[in-house]
Amino acid sequence: MLVLAFDTATDVATSALLDDGEVLGERASVAKTLLEDVDALLRRASARPRDLEALVVGTGPGSFTSTRIGLATARGLALALGIEGAGVSTLDALAEGSEGGLPVIDARRGEVFVPGAGAVSPEDVAAAGRLCVGDGARRYRAVLEANGGEVPPDDDARHLPRATFHARLATTFGPVEAIEPVYVRAPDAERWRG
Question: Do 45 and 11 belong together in one domain?
Answer without folding.
Answer: yes
